[in-house]
Every structure is written in structure tokens, then in C-alpha cells.
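Shipment paperwork, digital attachment
Item: protein structure file
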Amino acid sequence: TLNHPNVVSIFDVGRHNGLPYLVMELLEGASLRELLQGGRLAEPKAVSYAAAIARGLAAAHDRGIVHRDLKPENILITRDDRANILDFGLAKTTVVPAEALAHAPTIAATELGVILGTVGYFSPEQARGRPADQYSDIFSFGTVLYEMLSGRRAFLAETAVQTMNAILTEEPPEPADRPIPPVLDRIIRRCLEKNPEQRFRSAHDLAFALEGAAVPGSTTRLDLMPRPPARRRIAPIAVALAVSVAAALGFWAGAKSAEGPGPSFRRLTFQRGTVMSARFAPDGQTVFYGAAWDGNPIRVFSTRLGNAASTALAVPDADVLAISSRGELALSLNRQLFGLLQSRGTLARVSLGGGAPRAIAENVLAADWTSDGRELAVVYAEAGKVRLEFPIGKVLHSGPCVWPRVSPKEDVIAFVTGTSSNPSELWTVDRSGSKKRLASGGRWYTLAWSPDGSEVYFVSDERGSYSLYAVSLDGHRRLVTHFAGPTSLLDIAPDGRMLIATQENRREIIVSQRGGREVNLSWLGGSLARAISPDGQQLLFAENTSEDAGTYTMYLRRIDPPSPAVRLDDGFPLDLSPDGKWVAAIDSEKPKDLLLLPTGAGETRRLSLGLSLDDARWFPDSRRLLLMASEDGRPERSFIVDSAGSTPRALTPEGVLGLAVSPDGHRVAAQDDTGSVAIYSVESGADRTIPGGPELGDIIGWTADQTGLYVAEEERTRARVLKRDLATGRRELWKEIGPSDTIGLIDRLVPIVTPDGRTYAYTSHRWLGTLYLVEGLK
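Attachment content:
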């Protein structure tokens, strides 16, 4: 019943000649116990493993499965650095006679020693012989996390009886040689509470806390003080379905108001996937939301507050755009993602009482109702141009525009300009078209109006972590609170309650060699494949673990056998030279400078070219580079520059980008914005258009024999890599690639293929969300 990347998969169960058997996923690596024999783990590595383990536990607990024997021996770290939990449900909750345990050795080397090893990870409930539940797993998790960070076991005495007594009455000591960071120490102490009711309320909450603690340089304070015990007993299933996470989530932090209790959080969704939208219905007790669960297309669901179940509307492949006060839904039908939480579809209207949706307009990005439910503000995207109309037919703004929201007074619309990779600006526009900028900087705004229309609330990551702000119409901005990870503000009810979605944002690199199985070579969770050496042995990739979308670190890693990644420097890598000695990169601080970093000994070179750089490819001689860049105020084109710093020479016309250099270095394959493909001579600049018409996909490289190009037609879950013959233009499918687990994938898969076709890599971007109701936020 379990299918999760951090839980070992069981594919089949049966009997053969009277003997039972299991068909299990092949995992190659070492147990966490083996890794700990070398001492404590580095903090980033320990937190990364711990968050993965917590996510695996959460998946199991969601299915009603409790592990009951979590310990380092039952955690496998694969060769691609992924934590997997083994042996779910195999341990029994039994009482071991005290007289047998009293003589058990303290080293887990014999059969009795193995029993002692298990005892050392018991929860107090297990030590008392009581049944083990999800809270017992969380206690055992705390002992494992403590051991990863301290290098010693949390509870280990001379005999098993003394160890069990320590579990019941003592706390693990603070390591003397290197203290555990306070934020992680508080997480451990919360897991190891003797009273199960004072531990994390779920493994999901625990994972959120760890992901928040893993943000480098984060100043977010995690409030992990135990909650007081409930006044009356609540059934465990009710607790799981009515989680209040004001103190335990870890994604919400910041000072609480001294005027009464802080905000409370109620979890509304429990599936695995991406939450796209959410709106309160007019009754204030029903929530409609759009989500892509379990790898399926986006659908609309409804849930009643106080009821954990969600019901899918009888409208397939749709998303919620807005709900009117008159009881009408504005939907986006056949919604297609084209970036992080960005999508377009057909605008339609349907009554909350039922019936079929009525289509209104095509190519709609977003829409919002006026408070009286009579008019719609709509954002269209057609022929590469975006416009905001309010009411429909009257253009108030042309240019980038996302998350439009009509004020409660119906006179002003708030919206955001910018993209996922560029700083954004928050604007308002009135019915006459008069615009005003309220805030700027940061990325990934989501917004909603305050109930009285005096302020716009929005989420921004401009200071390295996601924060909730409010800004008045005169531009006065105030900080409301901080988040420790990606969070979206989706709606605010008239009484001030909020709908937010917390997001787990992860990129993974998948590599395959010589037709073998795909291997995960991700490093820290924000990995982005950039280049593979011609021999297929070196992987160049970027890592972004900060909430600042523009901050990257460059790494180089051997593919077979996988080696630990070597950190090169800060910046965004573009390409690895064919001789493996240099990396071309963009300086994050000075984006018009091209950096040439040695992979071994040597000094970094900086080329100030006066161009806005987008990408670069090395020539086979490892001396020249093909640049994709633009001059100030001009369209992009391709240039050739010598690594010694010569003046860039334009190769292609404006609007045409050279994307791949031939293996002999004499030709460049280029593509314009219509998809037409042409081959340019490096020496003469002459071009030749390839027959076969425009290309639907993107050029990603040349074949080794130089008779064709690799072209990728990229989607969210799969990429079709084709070979296009240069002489005839004929296309032939080479390989279709993509991860088997498609849940939460939101960005196009961009593959990299070596000329001989023996090695390929791609990056998958996963965005997993959970919807919460927030009450009591001052």
C-alpha cells in the first residue's frame, strides 16, 4: 500500500513451494548505522536525511501504518544519497521479559544485542508494554535524529532495563564537544517528550519543522514549546484530522501577539500533490480548491471545515479562479501548467448548486469577481502578450500580470508584475486605468485584500525567506509574520480567516548511462543539471537551497561511480568545457560578467563583456564560447567570444539564438522564436535553413556523426527526445524519458544528452502542497 520515494517498495507478495516470498525494490547503498560508525553526520546532511525520513513516515501514517521499530539499521542511504525506510510493520509490540533484557550486552553484535539496539529506540509507551502508534514512531525518530547529530545514542545504559528506565525518566545529554544547534535541539526535545500528546502532532508537521530548519542563513524562530494536554480525551483519528499546528508546524514563526493566544492552524488536505488555488465559499464554512493529486491533472475539490474529507466536483481538469458572493464559480478548464504555479486555460462559469460550466474566454491566466458577483477582472495571454481587462473588454494594463484581486470596494485591482526568476512589483489599477506601485522586490508574490479593503496582504521571499506583509493603499508596508519555507496566501474571509498552502519545493537530477537504469544524483534538494562531460563521467549542476530564487552554488560530481559533489563557487553554471578544466558561469552579483572557473588548481577569470548573459556553450577546443546574450535594449542573439576575453563577435541575427555547437566546432545550430531551425557557419556566418518546417521542441545538442540534432519536446512529466536529420528534416523518436513518480511535477523536464547518446540527464521539479486554514492571526 505504500508508494513513496523515501520508503522501500514491495512489488509483490506470494508463495512458492509452500514458502512465502516478497519482491522488493533493489536499493544499493549503506544503512544509516554503517554511516554512523564514522561518527556524527554533518548538520546539513543529517537534516536532509531526517526530513526525508519524516516524509516517509508521514506517508505511512496517512495509510494507518506504524513502523514500530525505527532505528538506524532500518534506514538505508542509497548511492544517490536518498534515505529509505525499511521493514515497515515487521516489528511486534511485545513485552520482552526483564530478566532476559537484564543480561543483554550493550553492543549490537549478537542476537540479544539486536534486541537491546531496538530497546534503545523504544518510546516510553513501548517500554511500558503499551501499543505503539504514530507518536511512538515520532519518539523513535527523535532518538535517530539525536544520534545523527551527536554521534552517540540518546538512551544507552549498561543493561537493557537501565536503558528502558532512562527512556522513561531521563533526557539525552547535550554533546560536550559540539552542541547541537538550538533549532534542531528543540525539534529533538519535542520528539522525545515523554507524554505522547506533547510531541509533534504528525510526521507531516515534523517534516515541515525540519525543512524550515534546513534553510541556510534563516533567522526564522521555530516555536516548539509543548502544547498543554487536552482537557478531554480525543480519539487518535480525530486528532490526526483536526491538527492544530500553531506551535509545531515549523513553517510558521515570528512573534506572537501578547493579546491572547497566537494563531491556530487546521489542516484541510491530506493527499500528495500540488495545491494550486483555494477560495472560501459565501457560507464561510465551505472551501473550494484546485489541486493535482497523485499525479493526476488539476481538479476542483470542496471540503467543509471540520470535515477532513474532500469531494471532487464533476468537472474534470479544472482549477478554481474565484467564487462570487452570488454563489458562482469562475473556473479554468483544461488548465495547463507552464511554470511554478502559473497556468492558462478556458474561463468558465458554473453555479455552486450544480450544472455544466459555461465557457466564456480562451487563454485566461487568472480572474477575480467583484464583491457583488456581477463583474469579472480577467488576465489574458495571447500571442506572447498579456493584458488585464476589467470589466471584460476594457484593457486596464498590458504586460506581465499575475494574481489579480478586486478590492472589496470594487474600485481598484491589485496585481503583480514580474516572473518566477525576476523581482516582482505589486501594483494597483483603478477603473480609469490609473496605476500605482505599492511594493517591489522579491519573487513569488501571492496576495489577497483585507476584509475592509484598506490593505493588500502578500507573500514575498525578498529577504531570503518567505514572509507575509500587508501594505496600505498609500504604500505603508508592515511585516505580519515569517514563514520558514515556501508558502502561498490564497484567500482571506470577511472575518479575517486565511487559507494558506505550505509547499515542499524540491528539484532532483536523474542520470542514465549506457542504457542502464536511471539514478538519482541530486545533492541538497535544489539541484539543477547543467552539463555532462563528453565522456559521460562528470555532471555539472547548480544548487539552490536558499529561498532566494536567484542564489545558486556550483557543483561538479562524478557520475559512475557517484562521488560526493565538489563545491566550486557561488554563481550559476552554464557549461563545462570539453577538456573538463573550466566551467563557464554567471556571477549572481554581476550578471553581465562571465566567470571562467577552473575545476582544479588555478585562478578564476572574469570577463566583463557588457552583455546581458542568458546561457553559454563551450566550443570543442575549450577556448571559445558561444553566448546567448543581448545588448542593452536589444533582442537576444548569439555571440562568439574567446576565453582570453576578446570582443564578442555576433554570429546570428537579433531574435535568433545559436543553441548548440557541432562536434567539429565549425557549425552552430540556431532557432528563432517561430521554431525555425538553421545551421550557421562559424567562419563565414552563412546560414542554411533545415527542411521540415518549424520545430515544436528545443534544440539540445548534435549527434556524434554530425548528421542530426537532438530535439526535446518537453512536458511536466515526460520529455520526448527526437533526432532530426539535417538533410531531410525527418524526425525520429530517440527516447522518451521522465520519472516514474509524477506527483507534484510542475516544470518542463529539460534533458541533456551527450553526442554519442550513451548518457542523458534531466531535472524534475516537484512542488508538493498542503492547504491550511489559519485562524486568530492579529
